[in-house]
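thread: overnight batch results

M.L. [08:02]
morning all. the overnight job finished for the chain we discussed friday. pasting input first so we're all looking at the same thing
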Amino acid sequence: MSNKQNKLDLSTLYLSQTDDPEVLFLLAKKSMERFDYRNAIINLTHTVKLSPNNVNFSLALSLSLWYFGRISDSVARFNQTIILDEQYRNTPEFKNVLEFKKDFFKQLHAYLPSFFQGSQAPERQVFMSAAVDMIGSSETAIEILEIGAYAGSSMLTWSNAADKLLSGSCNITCIDPWGDSGADLFTEDMAEP
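M.L. [08:03]
and the structure it wrote out:
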């Protein structure tokens, strides 16, 4: 049999056809390579259920959740992965996920296709969403003014919270002079007044 015949065609496999965590993980990796985080999360969630003690599977799920924009879920999964990883501290399997998480959350995630809510500081998403939730049943339009908007990450958090939690309307105005701050990293439309 040739290598071509032996090669597993991952595109023909579906979640319902396998309960093999290694195959599911390969499917998830392929999805991640295509930036298809929705399917990666589906496969990785099933993979983690089948192999709950595998640090690599749990870490991959943490990252997929992050890139899909489910920041709170990602943080929770990272924390679960850190606890799991600590069990391997004195073994070759230890990866130091805690340090990885700290370094990962410090990074500027400007290379993402778009800025996801809370991507610069996931903790603030909770507080911003809670503030909107407290206003939730207001019949009057909510006005939010954000000064120092940069790339709009906070605006996305406000917008998502308003969409999900407000019964009335919401207007968000963002102001940022940018100057020499590197706004040209984004789009010309964003730099227009």
